[in-house]
Structures are given as structure tokens and as C-alpha cells.
Design a protein that fits this description.
about 250 residues, mainly beta, 2 domains, 8-stranded mixed sheet, about 40% strand
């Protein structure tokens, strides 16, 4: 597929900035979302979650996190120094899907073993980070979808960094289905010890492209660098380095 090297917004005509690998970009002048490959307007629903915290409030949230839990050093909040507090609007695909897995397997925890048949049926708003290489804790992120609004670049802080998508709609759906099937296999192995057959059918209801605010924080403690990721909508720590423990 040929990707355009220079594109202009199909709504206002302004040049649209993008980086190699980006498939979807936002116009910094009018806020329209465009497909990098064609320069055409993005026709799918594009939503936004708003950041609700200042840098000072994020620092206070982190200090509270540092003083909670028994794994953290008792002087962590007093001896730590904040180095970077970066607000990034990350791109996600939210795939709303009904998934049903029919299975048969062998339950071997009793004697004699028995064959069990059944189904796992669930509804998901499955979150897919729209970047091909990232270590973001997607499964730990309970994204607050009730607070989403139509994408409006005017509501994004001037100092924030907005990341474009490297994954298109079809790729996001495919990733969601694969991850859901892996999740169903995990659930299935709680019911049986050996899987004989497992067939999953997905009914995709809706796919939303969404930007969500995430704070990436770097702090120093006893001359070592540690990192924390926070949800900009709720202020909750999604993942954090604890000195002396694994990330």
C-alpha cells in the first residue's frame, strides 16, 4: 500500500503532521481526523477522554501512592524526586463484541476423568492500544468509557503530546478477537484440564477510535530512576516501579 508523504486536511486544507508508521492522524488546525494513506476524512467514530488533573495534582496522587502498601520503602515519598511528568493522549480502539466459545474438554481432577462440554459467553468493550510496539498495561486499564465525548482538539492541553494510531480498524478487531480467544482459553482451563475442542464466534457490535489521557512519570530514588503510569481521567496508578521490587 502506498502511503502519502504529504497530506492536507480534507476539511480545512491545512497540512497534517504524521510520522512513519502512522495510519490515522489529527489535524492540528481544525481537529478533523484523517487517514494517512489517502488523506481522506476519517469516517468512524472518534472519541476523547478528558484529563482531569494538573501536574501538581498528579504529584500529590503519586505521593499518596508512595505511602500506601507494605512493599514500598517507608521514606519513598520523602526521598523521591520527580524528574518528568508527561501527559500523553494515547490512541485506543474499543471493540464492543459478544463472544461465545463452545468447548469440550477432559476434567482429570477426579477419578475416573470425565468429558465436559459447555460454553463461555461474554460481552466485552475490549481495549486495543493502537500502537504496534508498546508496553502499556492495557489489561490493567479499566477505561472510563462513560466519560467519553466527541473528539475535540480544543479541549486538549497545549503541553500534552498526542499520539497517532499505527493500527487500523480491521487490525484492531483482529487483535481483539485473538486476545479474547486467549482469555477464553484461560477461563476454560479453570473448568477442564485438557481442551479437546474450542470454537469461538464473535459478534462485533461497535468499534470506537478513542484518545485517552495518560501521565508518564519518571522519579529518582537513591540515585536510581523509576517510572509510573497514571490514568489522567481518574488519577489512579496503572503501573508503577517500586524500589527493590519488579515492575
Amino acid at each position: 500500500m502506498v502511503v502519502a508523504q504529504n497530506i492536507r486536511c480534507s476539511y480545512c486544507g491545512a497540512p497534517v503532521e504524521f510520522k512513519p508508521g502512522d495510519l490515522i492522524a489529527n489535524c492540528n488546525y481544525c481537529g478533523f481526523t484523517v487517514l494517512v494513506e489517502t488523506g481522506k476524512a476519517f469516517n468512524f467514530k472518534h472519541s476523547l477522554l478528558l484529563n482531569k488533573y494538573t501536574k501538581e495534582q498528579i504529584e500529590r496522587s503519586i505521593l499518596n501512592w508512595m505511602t500506601s502498601g507494605f512493599l514500598k520503602p517507608p521514606d519513598l515519598d520523602r526521598k523521591s524526586k520527580f524528574l518528568d511528568l508527561d501527559l500523553v493522549y494515547l490512541p485506543f480502539w474499543v471493540v464492543s463484541v459478544k463472544s461465545k466459545t463452545n468447548y469440550s474438554g477432559i476434567f482429570e481432577r477426579i477419578s475416573p476423568p470425565v468429558t465436559k462440554d459447555g460454553e463461555i459467553q461474554k460481552e466485552y468493550n475490549w481495549l486495543v492500544l493502537a500502537r504496534e510496539a508498546a508496553g502499556f498495561p492495557t489489561r490493567e486499564y479499566d477505561i472510563p468509557l462513560d466519560g467519553k465525548i466527541p473528539y475535540d482538539f480544543r479541549k486538549i492541553e497545549k503541553f500534552a503530546n498526542i499520539i497517532n494510531s499505527e493500527i487500523n480498524r480491521e487490525e484492531a478487531i483482529s487483535i481483539a478477537k485473538q486476545e479474547i480467544e486467549a482469555h477464553h482459553r484461560f477461563l476454560l482451563l479453570k473448568r477442564v484440564d485438557r481442551v479437546i475442542e474450542m470454537i469461538t464466534i464473535h459478534d462485533t457490535q461497535q468499534v470506537v477510535y478513542l484518545h485517552a489521557p495518560v501521565w508518564f512519570v519518571k522519579y529518582e530514588y537513591k540515585h536510581k530512576i523509576f517510572r509510573i503510569i497514571l490514568d489522567g481521567t481518574t488519577g489512579l496508578v496503572l503501573r508503577g516501579d517500586i524500589p527493590g521490587s519488579k515492575f
